[in-house]
Amino acid sequence: MSLRRLQGKVALVTGASSGMGRATALAFAHEGAFLVCCDLNPEPNPNGYEDDISETTVDVIVKNGGNAIFQKVDISNFEQVEAAFEHTAETFGCLDILVNCAGFWAPFRKFVDEDDELWSRMLQINTAGTSKMSRLAIRQFLTQEVDEHWGSRGRIVNVSSCAANIAYAGEVAYSATKAAINHMTRAGAIDHARDYININCIAPGVVATGMARGNLENQDILKTMRGATPWPRLGVPNDIAQAILFFCLPESQWITGQVLSVDGGMTLGVPAG
Ligand SMILES: NC(=O)c1ccc[n+]([C@@H]2O[C@H](COP(=O)([O-])OP(=O)(O)OC[C@H]3O[C@@H](n4cnc5c(N)ncnc54)[C@H](O)[C@@H]3O)[C@@H](O)[C@H]2O)c1
User: How many whole angstroms separate alpha carbon 158 and alpha carbon 161?
Assistant: First the structure.
């Protein structure tokens, strides 16, 4: 039997109960990683499209013979974030991969109608939460040796949005806090390349998850999203999970600071009608 590609690696995934985070956790477990599944709750977002939505991510992984624990974390609560890293170190003794998938989106509204509370929440979850998670992961990575075969001391993969690359109507706070993640990726990667720590980012297009269901069920918004996506279908969580997985394999060890659009071509330009 061929060795699985993340055999024995310890991976912490935020937003792991649903959507892209869940698909990533399942893909990593399939490749032999031990998972720390972090989320607000173990149960999936009830609006999600998962076939096995009645089961938690940890239950699915364990049922399939994998190794995973759930850790309750709101990434905007720094005490909970610190506790998650302490618990990971106590349980597994190390951390190899962090995937920052948890994020906050709010229904479309014009810039003028955004309020301070919305901005504060977006900044605290999307930007400060991702930063805090990343800094604690890097501190842990720096206590560990470089894995010669893997080529790294540790890897971080962030999840931003196509809205971080080009402007979309009605989501200024979301776009700006996700654009901060894109640049945190580049600037952080420069600081830690010499440490053999890779930091990359996926910028998803429209993906069928619980977060997107409200838009996908609104015929006007759905039409706009389909029209803006050149590829003939919208995204599914595994499209994102497989790209995140690539950023964690030995083959991608010389890639750092990159933001990869996985969006069916949405950010390329204006598609044919
Ligand atoms: N679905 C899309 O079309 C789309 C497009 C671009 C980017 N994104 C981004 O993708 C990421 C994943 O979203 P998804 O579409 O899979 O949604 P989802 O609702 O299926 O999953 C998001 C998960 O994150 C968790 N979460 C939310 N806030 C959290 C917090 N403060 N701390 C910890 N966990 C938290 C939720 O409980 C949920 O389980 C998000 O960062 C989102 O902004 C989504």
Answer: 10
